[in-house]
Write a structure and sequence with these properties.
Blueprint (H helix, E strand, L loop, with lengths): L10 E5 L7 H18 L2 E5 L2 H4 L4 E5 L3 E2 L1 H7 L10 E3 L26 H7 L6 E4 L2 H12 L4 E5 L9 E3 L2 H9 L3 H7 L1 E5 L2 E13 L2 E13 L5 E12 L2 H5 L5 H20 L4 E2 L1 E10 L5 E9 L6 H13 L5 E10 L9 E8 L3 E10 L6
Parallel strand pairs: 1-2, 1-3, 4-5
Antiparallel strand pairs: 5-13, 6-9, 7-8, 7-9, 10-11, 10-14, 11-12, 12-16, 14-15, 16-18, 17-18
Helix pairs in contact: 1-10, 4-9, 5-6
């Protein structure tokens, strides 16, 4: 995964992609860029500008997964030491659409699709389909409805926004009609069995400044200022080293299964997508019960980009860099909407009235590792 080491970086830049960022997201990414720059012994110089930065030794922090090997070549991104994020070949690989197979008789198949990925990752994902046009969405939905409620998931939405659960063909059609079909044709749409009593685990790994840190954790949901349930933060337990160091811990069965499912999913991607490159890899794994009373677990989606848990990841990297003897740590990221009182010792990343989402506070906390917490 790491490839050969690149030369030392002198400057860290934020790299804009197709993704439109809210003000609070931009401010947080700027704060994380400063922290990463310090780890690298470099200087954060703001947004990437080809006219200003051509020929400089740059470390990039893209706002989303980079698409196309040509994108990496143009920026001189060759290894995980060159950026914080991921690089893949085709748009669908950057979204949760990668996590499910097509219908056997699908009428739309995107460039770069790999059937072998789903054969390799079958035990690591939930029952569902990815579709790339309206006709396939209708057929996939009807097929899944035979076993129970279906969750319809726009793949470009983040923090759980835009998802709906349907229980009938009429509701299914209503959900499909609400989609932007030009977006579906390029990026995909996911239809997946709906689970109850869900716990969402996070498993991931970051590689920065010669350090590898791996973690498991849990996500929390919160209400945004419109009353919608969205991502509210992550609690992470992190270790210095790879997934093998994580598996040496005394993990609960569900957590251990989440780690092994994330590893299966990631290994399938590395094997099936040869140009895949990522220094930041995060997997959301759902554990819950389906409509038939079966306990299920599987990777919901991957995040090969800076994400909601990245503030906690970066805080851990800073702590590991400061203390070479440190092997484990607990770090958390928090997103709270509306008025709140911040806890003592919170490292505040953003606190204010965002034009897009309203009043929001984002902060991190670091604590000693304690498995009982």
């Amino acid at each position: 995964m790491s490839g050969s080491r690149s030369t030392a970086k002198s400057e860290v830049v934020l790299l804009a992609t197709h993704k439109k960022l809210a003000t609070h997201e931009t401010v947080v990414q700027q704060a994380l860029a400063r922290r990463i720059a310090k780890l690298l012994g470099a200087e954060f110089v703001g947004a990437y500008d080809p006219a200003l930065h051509q020929g400089h030794s740059l470390y990039y922090i893209p706002s989303d997964t980079l698409i196309g090997k040509h994108s990496g070549d143009a920026l001189n991104i060759r290894t995980v030491d060159d950026f914080f994020g991921g690089l893949i070949d085709f748009p669908f690989m950057a979204t949760k659409a990668i996590s499910h197979p097509l219908l056997k008789d699908a009428t739309a198949r995107p460039d770069g699709w790999s059937e072998r990925f789903f054969e390799d990752a079958a035990d690591a994902v939930l029952t569902g389909f990815s579709v790339f046009n309206e006709a396939d969405a209708q057929r996939a939905g009807r097929l899944l409805l035979k076993a129970g409620p279906v969750r319809v998931k726009p793949v470009l939405a983040t923090a759980g926004r835009g998802q709906v659960v349907v229980t009938s063909e009429a509701e299914l059609q209503q959900a499909i009609d609400a989609q932007d079909m030009s977006e579906v044709e390029e990026w995909g749409l996911v239809l997946e069995e709906d689970l109850k009593d869900v716990i969402t685990y996070s498993v991931g790994q970051v590689q920065v400044a010669g350090m590898t840190v791996s973690y498991h954790g849990t996500q929390s949901l919160t209400e945004d200022n419109n009353g919608e349930q969205v991502y509210g933060g992550s609690q992470l337990w992190l270790v210095r080293g790879g997934y093998d160091e994580l598996l040496k811990l005394d993990l609960e069965d569900d957590v251990r299964r989440s780690v092994t499912q994330a590893m299966t999913y990631e290994n399938a991607a590395l094997d099936c997508f040869p140009d895949f490159l990522a220094s930041r890899r995060n997997y959301d794994i759902a554990h819950g019960t389906n409509a038939r009373g079966q306990v299920c677990s599987g990777v919901l989606e991957q995040s090969w980009r800076i994400g909601g848990a990245s503030p906690a990841e970066v805080e851990a990297l800073v702590a590991f860099a400061a203390d070479p003897q440190l092997q484990r740590i607990k770090a958390s990221s928090h997103e709270i909407y509306g008025p709140t009182t911040l806890p003592a010792h919170a490292h505040v990343l953003y606190e204010g009235d965002d034009p897009d989402v309203g009043l929001i506070s984002k902060f991190t906390q670091v604590q000693p590792y304690d498995r009982s917490q």
